[in-house]
Amino acid sequence: MIFYADIPGERLDAFLARVAENLSRSSAQKLIEDGCVLRQGKPGKKNDKLNVDDEISVTFPEPKPVQITATDIPLDIVYEDQDVLVVNKPKGLVVHPAAGHQDDTLVNGLLYAMGDDLSGINGELRPGIVHRIDKDTSGLLAVAKNDFAHTMLASQLKDHSMARTYEAIVCGNLKEDSGTVDAPIGRHPSDRKKMCVTPRNSREAVTHWEVIARYRGYTHVRCKLETGRTHQIRVHMAHIGHPILGDTVYGRKKPELGQDSQCLHAGVLCFRHPRDLRPVMVVAPLPEYFQEVLHKLKKTSGI
Q1: If 94 and its partner were Cys, which of 105, 189, 235, 270 is the partner (CB 3.0–4.6 Å)?
Q2: pTM to 2 decimal places
Q3: The predicted structure's pLDDT at residue 279
Q4: Rounded mean pLDDT for each run of 10 residues along the chain, 303 residues in total
Q5: 63-158 and 165-266+291-300 share one CATH topology?
Q6: Which ranges constitute the DSSP H helices of 82-177?
Q7: Distance set, CA 48 to CA 1, 9, 57 (Å)
Q8: Chain centroid to CA 36: how far?
């Protein structure tokens, strides 16, 4: 993976921790020590001071297996066959183990329910997980039950043939009935936990949106992902001035309508079955929290 330095004098390890997804500073230092990081084609040192436009090439090693505890977590499995299952993830459930969430994630629940009947292509850290959704986003997530299915589904993500459609409530009233946000997304320059629209060290990101209903001060929209970047819909809707209701990271800082996390639901997932390429469409209805917000908006808007 190639990055380009954009802050003069920044240390190499600090730069990598800032721009690379899910990479801590200590992990960046380990990559550098292991010779996985080249600066201008030569092995870098963690305390190298960068010049603007220095080319930084990073080779990420294959993930190492780690022990994960199988945990009895209720799962809403809405589709399943010998190759694939689709889970309707509730709001608040973390997808895979991370700091602070070692045994209470979707992956822990999958291991309890499925045992060894999951793909291992991503290493033990995220067995079976083909793509992710945020902790506080509800909705559909595809899980591969073998490496063949994982490879086929991952290729559909890469060529954008796996269709993922979300519903969201955004702040403000969109003037148009539909539109497209085509803006690259990368790591935020000063807050590594956030993403932002930026031309530097970013990747292509395209979101199509359309209005479902308008309310007083808010709009119910449908968003279709053409790409799948971290926090993509949240970042793109905030970028055009209509952050998602309850998103205190990218939008308004105070909770509104009882929502202190984003009102975003992955409601439709379409893909070609990895075994015979038949079309599969899975739909998850709006969860209770989303319906309650819509009910409040209808009342305040006199609908």
Answers
A1: 105
A2: 0.80
A3: 97
A4: 92 90 82 94 95 93 69 93 95 82 84 74 62 93 90 89 96 97 92 89 94 97 94 98 96 90 97 95 97 95 83
A5: yes
A6: 106-114, 147-158
A7: 19, 8, 14
A8: 25
Contact 118, 243 (CB under 8 A): no
Distance CA 207, CA 156 (A): 17
Four-CA torsion 75, 80, 83, 84, nearest 10 degrees: -60
Which tokens belong to 112?
Answer: 């309890």
* Side-chain half-sphere exposure of 274, counting CA atoms within 13 A: 23
Per-domain residue ranges of the chain: 2-58, 63-158, 165-266+291-300
- pLDDT score for 143: 92
The architecture in CATH of the region 2-58 reads Roll (3.10)
Task: Fill in the amino acid letter for 69.
Answer: T
Give the sign of the dihedral formed by CA 15, CA 18, CA 21, CA 24. positive
Domain 165-266+291-300: CATH superfamily is: Pseudouridine synthase (3.30.2350.10)
Please state, in angstroms and as integers, the Cα–Cα distance from residue 272 to each residue in 64, 141, 154, following that order: 30, 15, 11
Helices and strands, counts by H and E, the chain: 6, 16
134, 136, 191, 247: the catalytic one is 134
Q: What are phi and psi of 282, to 5 degrees?
A: -120, 135
- CA dist 117 and 103 (Å) reads 19
Cα(140)–Cα(89) distance, rounded to whole angstroms? 6
Q: What CATH topology corresponds to 63-158?
A: Pseudouridine synthase (3.30.2350)
Q: Is 117 a catalytic residue?
A: no
Q: What is the dihedral of CA 63, 90, 240, 19, to 10 degrees?
A: -20
Q: Give the pLDDT score at 66.
A: 57
- Amino acid identity, residue 270? C
